[in-house]
Amino acid sequence: xxxxxxxxxxxxxxxxxxxxxxxxxxxxxxxxxxxxxxxxxxxxxxxxxxxxxxxxxxxxxxxxxxxxxxxxxxxxxxxxxxxxxxxxxxxxxxxxxxxxxxxxxxxxxxxxxxxxxxxxxxxxxxxxxxxxxxxxxxxxxxxxxxxxxxxxxxxxxxxxxxxxxxxxxxxxxxxxxxxxxxxxxxxxxxxxxxxxxxxxxxxxxxxxxxxxxxxxxxxxxxxxxxxxxxxxxxxxxxxxxxxxxxxxxxxxxxxxxxxxxxxxxxxxxxxxxxxxxxxxxxxxxxxxxxxxxxxxxxxxxxxxxxxxxxxxxxxxxxxxxxxxxxxxxxxxxxxxxxxxxxxxxxxxxxxxxxxxxxxxxxxxxxxxxxxxxxxxxxxxxxxxxxxxxxxxxxxxxxxx
Amino acid sequence: xxxxxxxxxxxxxxxxxxxxxxxxxxxxxxxxxxxxxxxxxxxxxxxxxxxxxxxxxxxxxxxxxxxxxxxxxxxxxxxxxxxxxxxxxxxxxxxxxxxxxxxxxxxxxxxxxxxxxxxxxxxxxxxxxxxxxxxxxxxxxxxxxxxxxxxxxxxxxxxxxxxxxxxxxxxxxxxxxxxxxxxxxxxxxxxxxxxxxxxxxxxxxxxxxxxxxxxxxxxxxxxxxxxxxxxxxxxxxxxxxxxxxxxxxxxxxxxxxxxxxxxxxxxxxxxxxxxx
Lengths: 400, 276
Known about the structure:
A: 2 domains; 6-stranded mixed barrel; 13 helices; 57% helix; B: Rossmann fold; 4-stranded antiparallel beta sheet; 22% strand; globular; disordered N terminus
């Protein structure tokens, strides 16, 4: 009987193909909107998390100037001794790396390449989560003496050496020729779309004395130990730097501290809220789609009054008529759900490509949307179906 | 839920089965249908309208009864009551010995799908549904498997002279053909009783005669008891018995010794024209 009812429902949907399609349009749009929003939202959250964790977790970036980012200048640069002071005076810290940076054209193997040259210590590798893929780190002597040695990123290696061996070769930065002692393992795109592998790392003294000719330190990278309280570390760090920079109590900080973990949490929190919000808006459209189904089912029941009267007269039971219309609504709604899922998959894939976020197939939201659309069919189909089933066959047959 | 009642009806059918031919019905036997003091009142209080005012009627298996009467005489109400579509306000309705008036809605539905066939003035075919599928409809509610449905529907359509028209939609058929599909739908379940409510009301004289010939054949060849409401004396002349309603009571109940359908040849099948 159930199979027959299902066939009856499918037959009646097929008989009114255009109307059936218009009926489920609301559900189609609702389901595809929910799935697309959630899928893209998840992708965006993941992208943000990936990019921020590539900066290094538990990392504090300290820069001169009152605000983060461009235009935030105004404060004096740090000194190398600031890094040493932080490392020795504040607890819960794993590594502190002073960083100085300059842009320069580097030449090797008969080719040249414009890259950024970073001066720091081996601690820079810890704070930035870098691995030495080939070769070695700096030795203490090289760091102390400011020797002409360097480690290069994957992009620089590829551009200058191609398939040739790089370790042991000479690389000229401006007028200084240094020996490549190691290669850094690739990290790929950074949080702000930059290529993190496009860099050359030299001991900070080498950069200051031989390349830039000044002793400025642009950034202090502070890596905290796992489980240390970043708020407390940040507070002591600020206090220490204020003292070292001789700021009066009334002065504002002339440096800023950026907490990557906090940044990661804030940014992924924001995308999650956005995802939930958009998903909720889309869910409302699903509800509207359900009301659309009820509306059309009511029209359909009224329009088919004579048909219902006939079915009842020739011996259809009340529940058979109820089931027929209920199944019709559920089949319609589920069909809408299926079409919605297909559309959402296509839309998510295309939009993920356009927005440059990863496409993550989320089975949970797909199954849930489908079940939800079928449930909408039951809920909004029940009232019209009951109306059909309760009809009096005589009145229904007389209906014009 | 309705099993006890259905069971009783089941046993009752054995009686109907033994009395397929009208002429074998013994006068002392329990009639197929017995109405006793049936009244039907619509509405309540001052607006109440009594459509039937105490109707007694026995109908034996194999009979062909024409029910006539002016509008508002209660003939349609009587027909709805006879067809188990409606319950009388008071009185008893026995169908094969079963008290129909005390059955629930669903029990009456089961009774209808088992023993009754309906033909309406307005044909009431499902639109955009082929003749074949229309005829199969009652079998679906009886839970017949698809193969049996197809075979039975094809046979019924052939019996009404519509072989070759199985896959036409109602909109592609003439009125007479549509009514023949409706008759096929009513007879496909091999009902004990066929109720026809002004079956020729929407048809011209020629088509009306064809329909009446069909009903006559169902009565004679298939032993189906036919109850027909009609305005036209011409059509009523096909019946073996004519019952007239006036003001909610039976005014006249006369046998018709020479039904118009006697000695008529079977209708010739009309194959679908290529032009259509």
